[in-house]
Design goal:
By secondary structure, the chain is an alpha+beta fold. 26% of the residues are buried. The chain contains six helices and 17 strands. Strands 8, 9, 10, 11, 12, 13, 14, 15, 16 and 17 form a ten-stranded mixed beta sheet that branches. It has a three-stranded antiparallel beta sheet with strand order 2-3-4. It has a two-stranded antiparallel ribbon with strand order 1-5.
């Protein structure tokens, strides 16, 4: 059974959650707020850490098979005693019986402990507003897609990310031409000068992101970039209270090729932008050296909205810091047909007018 961590209100003993509005821990029962240092001092004065280790044994006629044991872990809610099953990467969750926010510190300890976290800066209402704003101006979107009851299915999640720091050295060779044309009364002339160009550049890179979870859609994660990493905080378990969180299941080594590609593209584009004054420029060779590489493990906030419309799941993801949102939309068949019919009619009218004029 996993150790469970929860944060209790010193006033009423209800569960505390992290408030993105005040950046403090908030009690939804008595409405008091506490900063993290106050909670630590209170826990010290009580002579205990704000966590409880739960030990629970149960006899059963059947056991989990080896595959199920590898995929599932169980823990006990400190508030109501209910047993909760979670997969092997879940680090923060809610009790389905009493809705108590719970954290599994063993999933974020030792080498699994994040180096930092960006706390939520936006709330659930901000996610609702961003969703409705994103839906506006979509002429093919079915009207019933944005019904209010769909908007309650919004979840705040801390997604594991790797941030890569490195230095890059780039050398490139290019074949360039400069063409000059002129004419006299008898001939047209063309002069072509050929050049072999060599360029070099070096730069330092900090915070190149890659999500460390197989659950996260890479396209969505890149679409809601960037994050402001100046707001990265030292990791505290309290930031996770009231949200879902996963530990990484993609090792940092998996991002090496991706990071090399991003460094290569950046330095290549910078060098090519400096090659001005030529008619044509073609690269002939290039060489990249990446050194002083380092990966940092952090948790970044996102809001996830999953909407089931006519049997199909549509997912929207919002940056929990900046409010930038992306997602996929259905198209209304009748509106789509009417839209294309309008385009066809417009083209027909325009063609008739052209024929009348000419």
């Amino acid at each position: 059974m996993d150790t469970v961590l929860e944060f209790k209100c010193p006033c009423c003993n209800a569960g505390l959650t992290f408030s993105e509005g005040t950046q403090q821990m908030k009690c939804d029962y008595c409405d008091n707020t506490f900063d993290l240092e106050t909670l630590r001092e209170y826990a010290d004065s009580e002579g205990r850490a704000p966590s409880e280790e739960v030990s629970w044994e149960e006899s059963q006629s059947q056991s989990w098979n080896q595959e199920e044991q590898a995929a599932l872990r169980s823990f006990q809610c400190p508030a109501c005693g209910g047993e909760i099953l979670a997969d092997e990467v879940t680090a923060a969750s809610f009790c389905p019986y009493c809705d108590n926010p719970t954290i599994l510190p063993s999933r974020l300890s030792g080498s699994l402990r994040p180096d930092g976290v960006i706390p939520f800066q936006t709330g659930k209402e901000d996610a609702k507003a961003a969703f409705l704003k994103l839906c506006r101006g979509k002429p093919l979107l079915p009207r019933e897609f944005t019904r209010e009851q769909r908007l309650d299915r919004i979840t705040g999640v801390y997604v594991p990310f790797w941030l890569y720091d490195c230095d890059g050295d780039y050398e490139g060779s290019y074949h360039a031409t400069r063409i000059h044309r002129w004419a006299d009364s008898r001939y047209n002339y063309t002069k072509t000068d050929h050049f072999l160009l060599r360029r070099g550049a070096e730069a330092g890179f900090a915070g190149i992101p890659m999500d460390g979870s197989t659950k996260a859609d890479d396209v969505f994660m890149e679409s809601i970039e960037p994050y402001d990493y100046t707001q990265l905080q030292d990791f505290e378990m309290a930031y996770l209270s009231g949200y879902l969180a996963d530990k990484y299941d993609v090792p940092s080594e998996n991002g090496e090729e991706r990071i090399r590609q991003r460094v290569d593209n950046t330095l290549r584009d910078q060098l090519q932008a400096s090659l001005i004054g030529y008619t044509t420029v073609l690269p002939t060779s290039r060489q990249l050296h990446v050194r002083n590489s380092r990966a940092r493990y952090v948790l970044l906030p996102i809001w996830v909205l999953n909407t089931n419309y006519r049997g199909k799941l549509y997912t929207f993801v919002m940056n929990g810091q900046t409010g930038k949102m992306t997602g996929s939309f259905p198209a209304c068949p009748r509106r789509t047909a009417a839209w294309f019919a309008g385009i066809t009619a417009g083209v027909t009218v325009l063609t008739a007018l052209v024929r009348m004029l000419f």
